[in-house]
Amino acid sequence: MTATKLELDIRRRGAMRGILTLGSLDPAFEGAEGVSGGSVVLDLRPVEFVEPAGLCGLAALLEFLISRSRLVGVRIPGHNVAAYLERMDFFRIFGHRVETNVDVAALEERRRGNPGTLQELINFHSEDEIPGIINRISEILENRGYLLRERAAICATLSEICANAVEHGHSPFGAYAAVQAYQHIVSGGRGKGEEVLVAIADGGVGVRETLSRNPQYAEFTETDNEALRHALKMGVTGTGEIGRGGGLAVVGQIAARAGGSLSLRSGSGRVTFYGDRTNSRNVPRFPGTFVRVSLPRKAPEEPAS
Question: Which residues form the Histidine kinase/HSP90-like ATPase domain (predicted)?
Answer without folding.
Answer: 149-299
